Amino acid sequence: MNFIERGETVLLKQVLRRVQSYPRNHALFVPTAVDWRLDMPCLVLDPDDESPVVGERPVEDGLTRDAVRGVVENAQARLEDPPVDTLCGALSYYYEHDASPAFEESADEGGSRER
Fold it and tell me: Which terminus of the chain faces fewer neighbouring Cβ atoms within 10 Å, N or C?
């Protein structure tokens, strides 16, 4: 699947891994009042389309494709090969604070982080 079809959900981790493949005019929409997680269903679509709904839940205002890409690229510039769970946390922070998080470079903790 190259681009999400209207009404079809995609997991957040899939969006983070291929944000550059979505058209510039698309935005990321997430369910209202949920904790951000990699397996969270979301929508990526043109915000000029009808009001998006994920399952039975209305969604918050979307983040533009360029905003999501900017968060991912910022993390990649500051951290060597950041795991997708770090990208998820960075995007959640950006969404809540309208600012990119500060990243601290650290040695690989050797955990089973998803890449």
Answer: N
